[in-house]
Amino acid sequence: MKLLGLLVVLGVGSWAAGDDSEPRKEPSQRLLTFLSLFNGYFSSAKEVKAEKAELGYPVHDVINATFRNVFVPALPNEITFYLEEEDNGVVYRMQILVIREDELGIIRIAPYNFTDTTKYKPGQFDVTKDLENVRLEELSPTRPDCEIVFMQTDVNVFVGTFPDCTRWVDGGHPKYAFTLSCRTITALVYWGKSREKDSLLPYDHRKIVSYPLLPYVAPGAENFKPPCNCS
User: Fold this and answer.
1) Which contiguous run of DSSP H or E holds residue 112?
2) Better-scored residue on pLDDT, 216 or 122
3) How many angstroms separate the Cα of 217 from the Cα of each of 119, 199, 227?
């Protein structure tokens, strides 16, 4: 399957994805922990099921999200993740995320949008074969306000802002407040024009599957596990 129509939406701050003038450094323990926690398949289905049982109706949508460490040949010097989100069997967000840590320990992420998600069903995109066809010359940087940022606030806890760079509504990108921990991603949808149903309470995405990090990330990365004692 040939992959076409991938568009970068960010050249982050002082760096641009694929910039070979700044070689990738060995990831810190903080960054490895973030990557390991982030690397998985998450779903809010359990939360919605509980809402239906207790209230008789759902407060949130059922959102399933894959955040998976991948290798993109067009970006060989970057740590990259594939993001896929779907609602009721419809894929509505597909991105490649380029992840770095700055000198202050802030995790900075540059998202690349797939311009056509309609031709894919959930799980259909092959993270190995389909990424082989992406060429760097197909990508061009645009809006700097699409930067995704996370900071570590406690052991195995990262809090950040995650703009929806696939949509432009009323002069801005809808933004989400994310908290990443051992077993969950909680996402607060506080913009009424967001793709998901907004709610006073956050979406609770439970980690259903954990993926190993790929060996290119760091020596022994495939065996790295954060020291989580969560139940």
Assistant:
1) strand 107-114
2) 216
3) 30, 36, 19
**Any idea what DSSP says for residue 23?**
P
- The residue to which tokens 């926690």 are assigned: 37
How far apart are alpha carbons 168 and 27 in whole angstroms? 33
Amino acid at 28: S
170 within 8 A of 192, measured Cβ to Cβ: no
Band of pLDDT at residue 119, cut at 50, 70 and 90 = confident
Confidence of residue 35 (pLDDT cuts 50, 70, 90): very high
What pTM value is reported for the model? 0.81
Best CA proximity match to 120, nearest among 143, 165, 89: 89
Q: Does residue 107 contact residue 101 with C-beta atoms inside 8 Å?
A: yes
The Cα 161–Cα 149 span in angstroms is: 6
